[in-house]
Amino acid sequence: MSDELSKLRTFVRDSRSEMIALETLLTKIKALAPENGGQGEFEKAAALTQWLTEHGITDIQRFEAPDSRVQSGVRPSLVATIPGKSDDFTVWVMAHIDVVPAGELSLWNTDPWQVVEKDGRLYGRGVEDNQQGLVSGVFAALAFVKNGIVPAHTVKLLFMADEENGSKFGMQYLLREHDLFRKNDIILVPDGGDPNGETVEIAEKHVLWIQLHTVGKQSHGSRPDLGKNACLAACDLALRLHALEQVFDKKDPLFEPSYSTFSPTKSLSNVDGINIIPGDDVFCMDCRVLPCYTIEEVMAEVRRRCDAVEQQYGVKIEVTTPQAESSPATPVDAPVVKLLADAVKKVHGKTVRPIGIGGGTVAAYLRNKGFQAAVWSSLDETCHQPNEYCIIDNMIADAETLAALMLG
User: Fold this and answer.
1) What is the pLDDT, as a whole number, of residue 327?
2) Do residues 143 and 60 lie in contact, with contact meaning Cβ atoms separated by under 8 Å?
């Protein structure tokens, strides 16, 4: 191990309390999208900018996507730069600063917006998704700044808005409005992984969100014969769409689960009383489809099943797709995959293997534009769950790995 890498790793390991403090600061700020009743990332981006500046990372650019739904009028993303010996390509480490809502508070053992440290873990909303990756990247970069070590290539930390709701005001905005990336850049997204940090995600299933609005005829609960029960039709439709798993039934061991999934999820309120046959019903599906199928062929089958339900129940079904994303895979031998594998091997003596995932990350948007991106971290995957936690030692170990990647 080189003297420089040893210094970087020592700095990271000695920064345990400071890493916990940054997690604590970020968790207190509810960076929720307006879809989730929040005001976006404005306050959290400001706090992060101040923290970075006070700790010596001062080259920070701010990119603001207009959004009239939030009080500030903008959804900010940040780019912090650490100059390297060479600028022929950039090493990117990118994390998102927005989080999902806490959900049912009774399921939490602690206040989700206050970090609690217990048994080597930090509990709180966002501590793993995606603040673990954010903090790991920050302290890997900070190790260079504090030790006066210049990375082999320019390092940029990207802190994105709006990842949890489709990235319209985050990565999609940045790719459309700003020329930030080059095709030979090394792009790592620490927003997915496994508990041991031994898998690197190079491919994603298609992400297909479907909203289904069933329109029938309302009637009294005692006279269903006079109505057209939109809820009943919707329930039948949900089962028929869930059964698409038997139609699009191919398997790919690169992914876990290895098959396409079609899951009913969100359901909107329809009527206020139990004794009312609903004439209107809305529910949603979250579908994660293997790349061997196209979104178009899936949607064609969805429409056929909607037509069958319409005919059986005498209702009308309106179909919209809040999100429909697909992307090519990053090659197994891409430079980002090789350099990451070398860093993990050098620091932890582990061998990583490529995988695909069902969850969508910003890597998909980058891959669609021809940029080779990889997703990696050491996670227990408690994101979006009650009692979300981050293992402190994993956060430190990931920062050591990122420092090795940045060192080159």
Assistant:
1) 86
2) no
In the predicted structure, residue 389 carries a pLDDT above the cut 80: yes
Q: Coil, helix or strand for 4?
A: helix
What's the rounded Cα separation, in Å, for the pair 290 and 171?
23
DSSP designation for 353:
E
Query: Is 88 within 8 Å of 153 (Cβ atoms)?
Result: yes
- End-to-end, the C-alpha distance of the chain in Å comes to 13
Read off the pLDDT band of 397 (50, 70, 90).
very high
Whether pTM > 0.90 for this model: the answer is no
Q: How many CB atoms lie within 10 A of CB 239?
A: 11
**CA–CA separation, 229 and 29 (whole Å):** 43
- The pLDDT tens digits for 73-127 are 999 999 999 999 999 999 999 999 999 999 999 999 999 999 999 999 999 999 9
In sequence order, the 6+-apart residues with CB closer than 8 A to the CB of 157 are 57, 78, 79, 80, 81, 82, 92, 93, 94, 95, 137, 138, 141
Q: Hey, which residues are catalytic here?
A: 98, 163
Q: How far apart are CA 391 and CA 400, in angstroms?
A: 15
Give me the residues paired with residue 211 across strands.
Answer: 284, 320
The angle subtended at Cα 105 by Cα 34 and Cα 48, nearest 5°, is 50
Residue by residue, DSSP assigns 192-230 as: --BTTS-EEEEEEPEEEEEEEEEE-B-EETT-GGGSB-H
Tokens of 369: 């534009």
Sheet of 316-325: strand order equals 261-267, 280-289, 206-215, 316-325
